[in-house]
Design brief:
The structure holds two protein chains of two kinds. By secondary structure, chain A is mainly alpha-helical. Chain A contains 22 helices and four strands. In chain A, the strands form two sheets. A two-stranded antiparallel sheet of chain A has the order 1-2. A two-stranded antiparallel sheet of chain A has the order 3-4. In chain A, 56% of the residues are buried. Chain B is of the alpha/beta class. Chain B is 34% helix and 10% strand. The chains are: A mainly alpha, B alpha/beta.
Chain lengths: 487, 498
């Protein structure tokens, strides 16, 4: 695939940035600062060379964020693919939350620690409003990867864990694993707090290998699980009226004996346990394959996997370079679509229709759609391969109903005029959600419905109410189309 | 389906999880209250939190919500304005029932998730070795009914309903079921049971494969998941299946859309699903498949929705979950979860002639008792046993008990030696039950003795679960097991029916 040679006056912004970052070339004065984006390192694997229009930018925004706001995809497309990726993977400074602060149905601020469901809404709000979209998306990936549920702890500890994962979102996996291993919510969830030298509890020691670092039955056996559990002994906490507190390592509970893990002998502790897991020869392949699966629908090619595994090991287990390679890979843009996870799709509804959190209904809606934040179904996280069935399709329909609760047309007027055709009605409904184009199959289906509803009118005085009905129906059904629910 | 993260894609979403020591948290109970609201049932005052918003809809207050969301479809259809009642019947029950002859067999799979402790369910109470291995958790001799076929085993007192059903000849127990070379991972072992093979890469459930071989291309009710999402045992490669919580909770509505337009809009969404469900893009096919099946479920279940805007179940006048479905039997009330409600709904669906063939449910209780075992085990087992006894009585009262078998299973038993947290870690061989009027009541296989534990200190299996699956397929469905279970010829068969 060849890249057309561009004339100098049409250089995409990424070139500007590259020049700007070069030591021996002075900064061009006419370059606006916001165009100076960090330059990505060369990818260790294949890079997409096809067109990068709003269509590709839309996929990037759904998979590396929470969907486009109106105009976002067009803006991103103008940057070119490399700079578009860099704008997501290299956010500057602390995240800003753009738009109105969230509140509950009575206009009160959220109380994520004390009010049921507000924790879900609190994070959903960050997904909707953060200007560091990929940081939130990676935090969601780590939440599913190290799936911990507040059923074993509480919202306070879960939110604390959430900030820890956000800090490591695009950082170093080894550091992240260390953080997770002694994180209070995780200690409670997988019994790390009752794992002591007299009665080792294998729960965390097993899942750490099976689900977090190596994969089921890859390079370890039951003996390693047991020995790993011994290495992890010593963490405990107190209980008071408010619940669990004072999480700490108590040397008197730790097994200081010699352990044998993956053939290594030593008086291993929890830090050794993490180190042995990430330096295990089967770890890079597990991590690369799993991380790839969150972003790309096609199976990872063997050569790509090997290149990414090498890059990962060489970098000392850095996450950002892998994500930057995946987001630039040809299969990311050319491969099959992915079903957008429920909470991502929900955040995208609000972003597309320029809304923020004005109701805490989102908490119970999340139950129906199959993804409640801080309550993954189990320790292996959500099943990204199967998001939809009849129940959860109906749940997503409820979500659209909630997103539309302040946008249902009724009363005595119709904003688009009674001469509106079915095609125009379709376009107005598409624009309501941010202008996402649908396939011709979906478009024809919806326009046909618009015509059917218009024909249902039997009296002149019904003109306005049937225009309203038509627009309401189209608004509900657009985000329910297979096109809108996938990217 | 699209590739998911991780080297091993499970064939379905729910998995057993370790539990908090003290049972369900407040949030979980409230979540159930929400589901009850959505199911159109008045919330129980104790569970209702005034801070919890009602499901939205413009200007719809709670009263109207209950009528609107739960009875919305029925209001439209029930009023007969669209003339769709005939269509529902024509398209729904009548059509689907015609696909399956009356009296055809139904298999219900009930998964006790998390690894239920077989050594507590059927305890060798008098065995000194047992008392030694279980210093705090041992079931005391004489505390429950002895097992008729092997009086050295005692039913756990919480399982007295199982004991009574067993004495009536309606339960076959498998006290040593499992497979060779057991895997102690929840995910792997459960997956094996779900797919009916010790194969981590198989992505269809064992009942799903049966439905692919012997089922129907248009009837999603042949494989019904009652967990609110697809149950992995029912994952098919080609034929449709459906997932619901309870029959009267499946109602869909559109904000600001009413009258004829509501039906047209829902039909439009289903027909787009019909058009795109065979898309070559697996993600498009997944969404479209769900939309298409929603159309069928919606039409078929409409008769179960409340009529005239009134709810069939009124918490003020009845606490019996069976009352919602016109049952003459009293079901237990679940403190958390809704297993009795789901089973009551299932009995009504069977009696109504909805063409079911394989049904799968998962317990709300998670039996992964690493700590504080007795709290979870006692109440969890009691709810399962009492609910199944009510279900059996309900089927008998409705005269359809001869059509139904219930298979109760868990991914593994638990370690013989208890741990230091008043709990037990993952084990190997465990206990299964088969319940029904036509079951060969008794014991199949034998208790796995405690002086013959494996190298990890776990009980060893003497009945292979795949042999039970093969026997079920052949004896219950008249289906050649070789087309469904890999390596079927190599497994022993057991006489499961009288």
């Amino acid at each position: 695939m060849s890249t057309p040679i561009r004339s100098p006056d049409k250089l995409p912004p990424v070139r500007e940035a590259r020049h700007a970052g070069h030591r021996h070339r002075p900064l061009r004065r006419n370059v606006r600062p916001k165009l100076i984006l960090p330059v990505l390192d060369p990818s260790p694997t294949a890079v997409y060379r096809g067109k990068f229009t709003a269509e590709q930018a839309t996929r990037l925004l759904w998979r590396a964020g929470f969907g486009p706001r109106p105009g976002d995809a067009e803006r991103l497309a103008k940057l070119g693919m490399e700079a578009a990726v860099a704008s997501l993977t290299r956010p500057q400074g602390t995240a800003r939350l753009v738009g109105a602060a969230p509140h509950d149905d009575h206009g009160q601020p959220l109380d994520p620690i004390n009010t049921w469901g507000d924790d879900h809404c609190w994070w959903l709000d960050r997904m909707v409003r953060s200007n560091q979209q990929l940081i939130e998306r990676m935090t969601l990936i780590w939440h599913s990867w190290f799936a911990t549920s507040e059923e074993a702890s509480n919202a306070q500890l879960m939110i604390k864990q959430n900030w820890m994962m956000r800090r490591h979102a695009l950082g170093n996996f080894h550091q992240l694993l260390l953080g997770v291993t002694v994180d209070p919510a995780m200690l409670l969830w997988l019994n790390g707090n009752t794992n002591d030298k007299d009665s080792p509890n294998e729960n965390y020691g097993r899942e750490m290998l099976e689900l977090f670092t190596l994969g089921a039955d890859r390079g370890y056996d039951q003996r390693d699980v047991h020995q790993n559990a011994r290495a992890l002994t010593g963490w405990t906490n107190d209980w008071n009226d408010q619940g669990p507190s004072n999480f700490r390592f108590d040397p008197s509970l730790h097994d200081y004996g010699v352990k044998r893990i993956f053939g290594h002998h030593g008086r291993f502790g929890w830090r050794d346990s993490c180190r042995l897991a990430v330096t295990h020869p089967d770890h890079p392949s597990f991590l690369v394959d799993k991380l790839w699966g969150y972003f790309v629908g096609a199976k990872i090619p063997r050569a790509t996997a090997h290149a990414l595994e090498r890059a990962y090991t060489r970098s000392g287990y850095e996450i950002r370079p892998l994500v930057e390679a995946i987001l630039r890979h040809p299969l990311f843009y050319d491969g099959p679509r992915l079903v957008i996870p429920p909470v991502v799709w929900t955040a995208g509804l609000l972003r597309g229709s320029r809304q923020t959190i004005t109701t805490t209904s989102w908490a119970w809606i999340a139950q129906l759609t199959g993804q409640v934040l801080f309550q993954p179904p189990n320790v292996s996280g959500w099943n990204y391969a199967q998001w939809l069935d009849t129940s959860r399709w109906a749940g997503r329909l409820e979500a659209v109903n909630v997103a539309l609760q302040n946008h249902v047309l009724d009363g005595k007027t119709y904003p688009y005029g009674i001469t509106e055709t079915a095609v125009e009605a379709y376009k107005h409904a598409i624009d309501f959600w941010g202008g996402h184009a649908l396939s011709s199959t979906a478009r024809h289906n919806l326009i046909a419905l618009g015509r059917q509803i218009a024909r249902g009118q039997t009296h002149d005085w019904e003109q306005i109410s049937f225009r309203q009905l038509r627009q309401n129906a189209l608004r509900v059904l657009i985000p329910m189309t297979p096109d809108w629910m996938t990217a | 389906m699209s590739a998911g993260p991780g080297p091993r894609v499970p064939s379905g979403p729910t998995r057993g999880v370790p539990r908090a020591p003290e049972g369900h948290c407040d949030g979980f109970s409230r979540a159930q209250a929400i589901r009850r609201v959505l199911a159109g049932k008045p919330p129980v005052a104790r569970e209702w939190d005034p801070r919890m918003p009602l499901p939205a809809g413009v200007g719809i207050d709670r009263r109207r919500f209950l009528a609107g969301a739960a009875g919305g479809l029925l209001t439209v259809y029930g009023a007969g304005r669209l003339g769709l009642t005939d269509r529902m019947l024509g398209d729904g029950i009548a059509r689907a029932a015609a696909l399956q002859p009356a009296g055809s067999p139904i298999l219900v799979s009930l998964f006790m998730q998390g690894g239920v402790d077989g050594l507590s369910l059927l305890a060798p109470a008098g065995d000194p070795l047992y008392v030694k291995l279980r210093p705090t958790l041992a079931v005391a001799a004489g505390s429950g009914a002895p097992l008729r076929e092997d009086p050295s085993l005692t039913w756990h007192p919480s399982a007295s309903s199982f004991a009574q059903l067993h004495d009536a000849g309606k339960v076959a127990v498998f006290p040593g079921i499992g497979y060779a070379d057991p895997d102690m991972s929840h995910f792997t072992s459960r997956h094996y049971w779900e797919v009916g093979a010790t194969d981590t890469s198989l992505l269809t459930g064992w009942m799903g494969r049966y439905l692919d071989v012997a089922g129907d291309t248009t009837n999603p009710f042949q494989g019904l998941s009652m967990d609110g999402q697809i149950n992995p045992t029912l994952a098919t490669a080609k034929n449709p299946t459906a997932a619901i919580d309870q029959p009267n909770s499946f109602a869909v509505w559109l904000s600001g859309v009413w009258g004829d337009a509501l039906g047209w809009a829902l039909d439009s969404a289903s027909s787009l699903g019909d058009t795109q469900r065979h898309s070559r893009d697996p993600a498009i096919a997944q969404v479209a498949g769900a939309a298409s099946e929603v159309g069928i479920v919606r039409r078929t279940l409409a008769p179960f929705a409340p009529t005239n805007g009134n709810l069939r179940r009124d918490a003020a006048t009845s606490t019996n979950p069976g009352a919602a479905y016109g049952s003459s039997v009293t079901y237990p009330t679940a403190a958390t979860g809704d297993l009795p409600d789901r089973l009551a709904g299932l009995a009504a669906m069977i009696a109504a002639g909805i063409p079911l063939r394989c049904v799968a449910l998962t317990t709300d209780t998670q039996f992964d008792t690493h700590s504080g075992q007795e709290t979870t085990f006692d109440s969890g087992v009691k709810l399962v046993a009492d609910s199944l006894a009510s279900f059996q009585a309900d089927l008998e009262a409705r005269g359809v008990d001869g059509r139904v078998l219930v298979h109760v299973w868990s991914e593994f038993g638990r370690r013989a030696q208890e741990n230091g947290s008043d709990g037990t870690d993952h084990g190997a061989a465990g206990t299964s039950l088969l319940i029904g009027s036509r079951v060969n009541g008794g014991m199949i296989g034998e208790f796995a003795p405690l002086n013959q534990l494996d190298a990890n200190g776990n009980q060893q299996e003497n009945v292979d679960f795949r042999g039970v699956y093969c026997s079920l397929l052949e004896q219950w469905f008249g289906q050649d097991a070789g087309a469904v279970i890999p390596g079927a010829a190599g497994f022993p068969r057991y006489q499961l029916l009288t």
